[in-house]
Amino acid sequence: MWFSKEKDQETIQPELRPVSDDDESSQQDSRNRVQKHLTQNIGSSAFAELQLIILTFCTGMQDATTFPDYHCFASNQTGNTVFLCLALILPQLDGETFVSANIGMALGLFLAAGWLTGQLSHAIGPRKRWWLVLCNLIQTGLVFGAAAVQYRYGIPDRGPAARAVIGLLAFSAGSQVVQSRSLCMTEISTAMATAAWVDLMIDKRLFVIDNRPRTRRVAFLLALVVGTLIGALVYREIGSATAIAVSGAGKMLVTIMFLFSPAHEKEEPVSSV
């Protein structure tokens, strides 16, 4: 009887089925499809416009908090440049109207991020899906990092914690602006409004219904205004850390959306900058 049980146990041992050529071929096809999808160039489309509009909204939320907290901008480098020049000629205003250390951190890291992202984009391909996803993922991490610093250390208007928040947000913004240029939709810069206002006012087809550049500029300006208003509201009612965290959530949404952005089938002009 003992021998019978042993025999039964031997007979019920599962058989290992070797991987067939069809299974290997299916797995290889799946990997090839994923690789092809990630290496596609993302084209200019309404979906891409929506992504840039969301990023613009997030930028407005960030700058609505950084100026009252740190007396400088994370993404608006026109204002920072003016303040930096004032600091050179009118140093007595430092600490009252602006904080020069914060301005230097914002402008310096914004430019550093623009240079790094731009030069790497030239080598990799500025529209590669995997590159856009990776860059936006890093930018999102930087924004969440800024919110974490505020939650942990509070919101002093100067000092290491202040410079850390400003630096993280400025580096994220610099990389973001470069990527918006690479999609050849310069009407939606995601940050600077001056050129958009001027281009909108001088557009000779301003009142033509079918005018895509005009529509992009209007959408960009509205998103920036609404984002700033919402950011100011959250700042007043809850706090700047929450406003920055919400901005980071919006950037995470855009990162995911890049996985589904339509690819262009034919060669499109790519921004030279």
Produce the secondary structure layout.
Blueprint: H1 2-11, H2 21-38, H3 46-70, H4 77-89, H5 100-124, H6 129-153, H7 160-182, H8 194-202, H9 212-237, H10 240-257
Biased composition (Basic and acidic residues): 1-10
Transmembrane segments: 98-118, 130-149, 218-235, 241-260
Region (Disordered): 1-34
Characteristic terms for this protein:
single chain, 10 helices, mainly alpha, 273 residues, Growth Hormone, Chain: A
How are helices and strands ordered from N to C?
HHHHHHHHHH
What is the overall number of helices?
Answer: 10
| Residue-averaged pLDDT | 87
Task: Compute the number of structural domains.
Answer: 1
The CATH level-2 architecture is identified as Up-down Bundle
Beta-strand portion reads: under 5%
Give the quaternary arrangement of the chains: single chain
Using the alpha-carbon principal axes, give the shape.
globular
Low-confidence residue ranges: none
Q: Rg from C-alpha positions?
A: 25 Å
CATH topology-level name: Growth Hormone, Chain: A
Number of strands: 0
CATH class division: Mainly Alpha
Q: Which percent bin holds the helix content?
A: over 70%
Distance between termini?
A: 83 Å
* Major sheet size, sense and barrel closure: none
Structural classification: mainly alpha
InterPro entries: DUF1275
Transmembrane segments: 98-118, 130-149, 218-235, 241-260
Region (Disordered): 1-34
Biased composition (Basic and acidic residues): 1-10
